[in-house]
Amino acid sequence: MTFRQVVDRAQVICKLALLLTSLYILSLQITHAQRIVFDEPTSIEGLLADARDIAEQARQRYAGTEYNYDQPLWQDALERADQARQLDPDNLEVLAFLADTYNTISWDARTREYWLRYLEVGGEQTDVVRTQLTSALNELGFARYQTEDYNGALEYYLESFIFNPDADTALLYLARIHFEL
């Protein structure tokens, strides 16, 4: 066998391998598209149920670590819940799920955003809502306080105090800010 014949055969093998790889990728894309079309829920209830299931998987998979948005399952859970929110922006269950999940992963600005929206559209101010909202507001206030943005910190701590007048942290930092200003 000549060198040219070896090269020709190698080219044929490479083309075959490329063709098979392309077919495999195409089959994966079709499978994914079918999953989206046939398996993905489109109702608020279905999306929220999926989000809850995925969040539970995230709790189990990432147990023992600090939960955060960079963990893919948390992203998936929040994406599903956000799809449900887009279908009904005032759905109390969806807003509560989003707020609680953002609280779980310590994204305080989003926790605040969704609990405030929840309350704005008629949600009940339960102990969980009050505790999580107060905690988020205190964290946001402290972040401002650390950068010596005392007016920004003051806004968050005042908001925290309004939602939970018994919270010592807000009172402590309101007093500190009073002396700083």
Task: Describe the secondary structure blueprint for this structure.
Blueprint lengths: L2 H37 L4 H18 L10 H16 L4 H13 L3 H13 L6 H20 L3 H14 L4 H13 L1
Helix pairs in contact: 2-3, 2-4, 3-4, 4-5, 5-6, 6-7, 7-8
SSE series: HHHHHHHH
Instruction: Write down the overall geometry.
Output: elongated
Tally of strands = 0
In whole angstroms, how far apart are the ends? 90 Å
Radius of gyration computed on alpha carbons: 25 Å
Give the helix level as a range of percent. Answer: over 70%
Poorly predicted regions are none
Oligomer: single chain
What fraction of the residues are assigned to beta strands by DSSP? under 5%
**Arithmetic mean of pLDDT:** 88
- Class computed from helices, strands and strand pairing: mainly alpha
Largest sheet: none
Count of helical stretches: 8
Can you describe this structure?
The protein is mainly alpha-helical and 181 residues long. It has 8 helices and no strands. The protein has helices at residues 3-39, 44-61, 72-87, 92-104, 108-120, 127-146, 150-163, 168-180. α2 packs antiparallel against α3 (72-87) and α7 (150-163) runs antiparallel to α8 (168-180). The termini are far apart. The model has no long low-confidence stretch (mean pLDDT 88).
